[in-house]
């Protein structure tokens, strides 16, 4: 089974690996240690100390607060909400619901028709990173994309201690 | 005096194991597998554990032989769909129709052919018409569990002495099935009876010989006879090669070992799947949604089918603590009078096609994975119609849209675990389907279904761009095919093939781009054409900040002056329609009729020499925030024409210069521009909770297009859970509701309605 060091996982995160390296990664059995190495690379990069429990998207992490709370936090430091809540409801939103707004992203005939579908862009209120884009009909409830079972993942699947448990 | 049936029916000796009928074997297998949680009740694998090398040798022989049979048999075919694109597949089954090993190719049919064999078992085929050594059966009935009518199955039982030891199935995607319109996935069918020639698990041959009545009837029922005939020979040849292979293995290993092996390999597949789930995923719930547009208003169809509707595909993946995978489509909208309906088997089998490209990318794909999973396909929805009249000829329209978000869901787990190389933002809507038919350039009755669609753009990953013009979700071996081969088959000359800039979704990593072919009518005597694809809706989101791939549109020109322009050596419309905001084709021709619009589904129209039609193959969605894309990569995109220059600035925030067609991105100015974009984002956006109040008011005022309201009304009528979640999310008053009856939609076929029947 292939093993990768922190440097290589860092290069993976940065998108700097060559295709043959990615191909080898994809063709090999998965390295069980990846998660802990990955977490440690990410922890080194964020400007805050809250232990990362789980990365859930570009810039977004579920972190452990000293109080014992688990919250969704952006790498810029902005804290959204409890991880059971939907972070999108605590983000900024911009809805492309006209042809004109659609045309800023696609040529006219290549965009969705706003009578049928809109684009919802969710930004971090702290750093304005575009964190998710939903292509949904008007009225569609905001999707709660992911509800991870963190305890089962750590305790039963990986059998490793939860970081920074209060 | 007539005799009673039981006096004339001869009781045949059962063909199953240990004196059992196939039906008994099927029932016992289902029960013991359910009760024990292990396939065939195997809590251990004695053959594998005692002699693993022998076990693997048997597997390798069978797997290699099945793949070899596919590769050899496909050379029999003349249809480029089969011979060039590889739209065929073979699979080996247990007597009870559980898949053991399968070839490469369109492996969705591991499930659909299994469903056909199960249908025969359930309907006592063992008794009548009988199942005997050297019989040949055929099936393409959508309601038995096929994907769509053009996927034709050949099914052959395998006997060892007097006992059945299994089945082999082969499938090809044929060019035409004699439907209401030509081509294999036609626009025009809105009911089963329009879908074309449907064969319901029929015995078509005995003693390895196809029956004369079958040969006559089937070839008189379809348009492209030579391709139909050679496709059938392909399937029979492959099935017989695999039957010989199995008999050789039995001669070598003994029948008892073979019987034990086929049980253990499926249980091994089940265990392997559970292990993969635990290795790759994170327990929890993943939610996603997609939509497919049905733009049928005003089309040349029965009145009740002439409506604009939306196919709603919400999905929830649950990865249970014990690594069982569950996928539920609760909330899906109704089936309808269009050819885009699906059956539960096509939906679930298709999910395996997707999973075999990501979660279980190995050669141990068999029904073991099926036994480790659970699917929810609500009755009455588009993926489980409660009416045999539903049409299915173009099932892929919504199937692809429904599966792609699942890959996006799984990618959240890969991302969380750090397996970034596995992340995929989704897949292209694999369309347009360019189809038509009539009397071709050779004077024969024929049809076309361009499989250029097998090479759409792939979704972006978390570490690299999606690959452009390269693959389709339903066939991992996708290939656009050679232009020269398509021109041999089709009365259409190529005026160009070109990448469509910006058709892949923008992102830190952009989706693979789609592309366009421009075709000129030439040589047909009587010919019609039409288009079939997604138009007004993007069929997937992007992922983690990336944009969805672009939606579709069509370009067709009839009665052009191209002949005259050729004679005068004037410029012609060539290549792709690379910027539809600034169209070029029209500058180099005139035409009596030009369709340049989002109406991406059309019915047959006459198409003559010098008419033009564009085939636009879609791109894949993007990953991550576009303003985090490396400036150098944007520069490459500009220079290689993967994006349009104005979007390099608007979407990717890159400042650049251009000299003699060569672009250079100014890194410093780009940094500044991107800072500015962040400020603009905060200025133009609002807190989500504030926006929620405004959107709620739209709902209370019922302010949305009719098709959007109807989509929700359909889902509400089928699902109490979806209704409750919707109302709870928006905190709507108790009495707020939208009913289908209030929207003046056709009532035909709307059976299940929990507001009327109390169905929950």
TrEMBL record, chain A:
InterPro entries associated with the record: Aceto_COase_bsu/gsu
Protein name (Swiss-Prot/TrEMBL): Acetone carboxylase subunit gamma
Organism: Siminovitchia sediminis
TrEMBL record, chain B:
Name of the molecule in the record: Hydantoinase B/oxoprolinase family protein
InterPro entries associated with the record: Hydantoinase_B, Oxoprolinase-like
Domain of life from the UniProt record: Bacteria
Pfam families, sorted: Hydantoinase_B (PF02538)
Lineage, opening ranks: Bacteria, Bacillati, Bacillota, Bacilli, Bacillales
Domain Hydantoinase B/oxoprolinase: 51-626
